[in-house]
Design a protein that fits this description.
The complex is a heterodimer of chains A (305) and B (262). Chain A has eight helices and 16 strands. With 305 residues, chain A is α/β, with parallel strands linked by helices. In chain A, helix 3 packs parallel to helix 4 and helix 6 (250-259) packs across helix 8. Chain B is of the alpha/beta class. The two termini of chain B are 29 Å apart. The chains are: A alpha/beta (305), B alpha/beta (262).
């Protein structure tokens, strides 16, 4: 196991293993500290953070779907200032890279948040959530058009020299042009997929199960869609890809790596098994050793056709 | 989290399940009011853990007991387990009740809301409080059996909406009746939201400290995912969100905005 190198590098961001705890599922401090060894995780992508605090959507914010969940949290977060001042410092003792996930209403807002992240000295990379609605252009998510994606990523690129990860939404349909636009705008990596919009109805009350009516679907059921999209985007961009969507085990993660991902994120699985990230990292390492790979890069994109 | 051996399982009233399992590590540290996050099975459907309150815990025997209503897919699967099976449990989670150091404490609950109150009356009596236990129901045939509670209480005062058992009353009028003859230093309640809202209001009117137990659909159970929030009054009087799994499930009756609950 010692002979396998699982290090992943995205510009200045260096992960000792390819497992990142996904934004919105691992908190923004140390809620999971009692249940897992946070220092063993490759990195954490902190809760999506906006310029000002957001209370988020009314509850219920979660419901179960076949092998999955819908969530409509609505980006509840304490705002970038409180996040940097109060919450991020709690992660410092665990000595793992901190990726700040950022969200906004306009390119200017994204740029301002990115600048604050860099100035704090606490953030190792920025993951840009472009699933937010572009309220000036009719409310469709920035990430559903190439112009929207380009405008956000280029604004963040001008504002910071930190590594930028563009997180794509599957609701865009064909992600290849979106990924290309993000790369052209200066993104250092692409992460995909964010959640897929879905809906559940209680047939006794005839009401939606979520107060927000619709929510984002995640969990094992979305995995084949996410793997397919990683494979498609791999042929469209040169920059590293971080795959996520329904990963519960090392075997799931390895599918993404073979399809073209350089690293992966684990989200919903942590709700069921708080030790999932650590177990998956160990499982990937064991697979690489068993198959005789010297490093994880040899596995990435090794799909046989 | 761990896999614990189930010692006993009973189903009563067709849909109330009681499971006792061996978990010395949980029994040692558990506080009344806390809950356990329980995985229905090893497969991905149903996916999420189910949050179930601790009904009782015995430090000497190392056992923990849960009592829950069989409502959906997850609770049905948990209820099908029997003695000898393993139970995948994460816990204890959340905060617990905060009893006063002395005095008379009323434990008043309705329906399956009585479930966390057994451990509560046990720990309250251990602390030296005088325990008054008041189980409520719509009608006698729906009342949860409460024989296990009686050994911890100096007074057992059932009440029912239709008068078929005990005093004919609602929770708030029952408290008024109790206050005619007894001074109360603390009220602990668990049950439907409307009932807890009335109890909290009555307690506040009489200046009696009161704690309620809030339920909300959960994800992670540890405070990381922000799905189980409830509206609470912050120190400066403004409304904020608290996480039921991490900051609760026990809250001060004056702190919760009941009308905002989902």
């Amino acid at each position: 196991m010692n002979s396998v190198d699982t290090t992943v590098r995205i510009k200045t961001l260096e992960l000792k293993n390819p497992v990142i705890a996904a934004s919105g599922t691992f908190g923004c401090a140390d809620e999971y500290a009692k249940w897992t060894d946070i220092s063993k995780i490759g990195a954490i992508s902190v809760k999506g953070t906006t310029l000002t605090p957001r209370l988020g959507n009314p509850t219920p914010r979660i419901c179960e779907t076949p092998s999955g969940i819908l969530n409509s949290v609505g980006l509840e977060n304490p705002g970038i200032d409180a996040m940097l001042a109060t919450y991020l410092p709690k992660l410092i003792p665990y000595n793992i890279p901190i990726i700040m996930n950022i969200a906004g209403n306009t390119p200017e807002e994204y740029a301002l948040i990115a600048r604050k992240c860099e100035d704090s000295g606490l953030v190792d990379a920025i993951e840009v959530n472009i699933s937010c609605p572009n309220v000036k252009e009719g409310g469709h998510a920035f990430g559903t058009t190439t112009q929207g994606a380009f405008s956000i990523i280029s604004a963040v690129r001008k504002a910071t020299s930190l590594p930028i990860i563009a997180k794509l939404t599957p609701n865009a349909g064909d992600l290849k042009p979106i990924a290309k636009a993000a790369e052209e705008a200066g993104a250092d990596a692409i992460s995909l997929i964010n959640t897929i919009t879905g809906m559940c109805i209680d047939i006794e009350t005839r009401k939606p199960l979520l107060a927000n009516i619709t929510g984002g679907m995640s969990g094992p059921a979305v995995k084949p869609i996410a793997v397919r999209m990683v494979w498609e985007v791999r042929s469209a961009v040169e920059i590293p890809i971080i795959g996520l969507g329904g990963i519960q085990t090392a075997a799931d993660a390895i599918e993404f790596l073979i399809a073209g991902a350089d690293a992966i994120q684990v989200g919903t699985a942590s709700f069921v098994n708080p030790n999932a990230c650590v177990e998956i990292a160990a499982g990937i390492c064991a697979y690489l050793a068993r198959k005789g790979y010297a490093n994880i890069q040899e596995l990435s994109g090794s799909l046989c056709l | 989290m761990s896999q614990y051996a189930i010692i006993a399982k009973d189903i009563t009233h067709e849909n109330i399940c009681k499971i006792t399992f061996l978990a010395p590590d949980i029994a040692q540290v558990a506080r009344a009011g806390q809950f356990l996050h329980i995985r229905p099975g090893e497969c991905s459907d149903p996916l999420l853990r189910r949050p179930i309150s601790i009904h009782d815990a015995d430090k000497d025997m190392g056992t923990v007991t849960i009592l829950f209503k069989i409502i959906g897919k997850g609770t049905k699967i948990i209820a099908e387990k029997t003695a000898g099976d393993k139970l995948d449990v994460m816990g204890p989670l959340g905060n617990g009740y905060n009893f006063p150091d002395k005095g008379a404490a009323l434990f008043i609950g309705v329906g399956i809301g009585l479930a966390p109150l057994l451990f509560a009356v046990r720990q309250a009596q251990q602390k030296g409080l005088e325990v008054i236990f008041s189980p409520g129901t719509g009608s006698a045939k729906k009342m949860l059996p409460y024989a296990d509670f009686e050994q911890f209480a100096s007074k057992v005062l059932p009440f029912s909406k239709d008068g078929s058992i005990g005093t004919q009353a609602f929770a708030d009028t029952m408290i008024e009746t109790i206050l005619e003859s007894t001074q109360l230093d603390y009220i602990c309640t668990c049950g439907p939201e409307g009932m807890m809202k009335q109890v909290a209001k009555t307690a506040a009117q009489h200046g009696i400290p009161c704690q309620v137990s809030i339920e909300e659909r959960m994800g992670c159970g540890v405070g990381a995912c922000m799905t189980c929030v409830c509206a609470t009054k912050k120190a400066d009087g403004s409304i904020g969100h608290s996480r039921v799994c991490h900051d609760g499930p026990v809250f001060d009756g004056k702190e919760v905005f009941f009308d905002e609950l989902g």
